[in-house]
């Protein structure tokens, strides 16, 4: 009887331990879901003046060290690092990269291309997006209002290269009914900087 009692007690302890483990896993999953929801719902009203200042300075100089950034904003290095890390985790800061001069790399042609489509099926749209995403000549693609369905920003070495791209890539896109190219004669302004300092006046 004593042996049976010991086994019973051990089983109860195992059941309790197993239940605790299940509860812990549940809590961890719940915390992960809550964290994901929090990041997805990160809104502009959650940014303070320091967050905006950090974002603005880093988009102007992505190589700015945490030490110099903290010094410019009169913050402690730890506080500055935490805020920058939070901006990265919430997706406000998506990454850091060098900005290249396209003309010095021999990409002398820039075109803004309007594309109209007749086939708007899910399959055709998915294939269209896949081809555009894989084309390095396309810097950006927007689904727009107006007469055309898409507006593309395309770069090429010269007019011959651009013409080949149109014939071999754009004209073979599914469901395309018309392509209208507008070539840039002179670039007056080109920047990736967002007017984040204007958010301070909202």
From TrEMBL:
InterPro entries: AsnC-type_HTH_dom (IPR000485), Dimeric_a/b-barrel (IPR011008), Tscrpt_reg_AsnC-like (IPR019888), Tscrpt_reg_AsnC/Lrp_C (IPR019887), WH-like_DNA-bd_sf (IPR036388), WH_DNA-bd_sf (IPR036390)
PROSITE patterns: HTH_ASNC_2
Coiled coil: none
Domain HTH asnC-type residues, every copy: 47-108
An individual GO BP term: response to amino acid
Keywords from the UniProt entry: DNA-binding, Transcription, Transcription regulation
Pfam families: AsnC_trans_reg (PF01037), HTH_24 (PF13412)
Transferase among keywords: no
A single GO cellular-component term on record: cytosol
Gene Ontology molecular function, alphabetical: sequence-specific DNA binding
Signal peptide: none
Protein name in the entry: DNA-binding transcriptional regulator, Lrp family
The organism of origin for this protein: Pseudomonas asplenii
Lineage, opening ranks: Bacteria, Pseudomonadati, Pseudomonadota, Gammaproteobacteria, Pseudomonadales
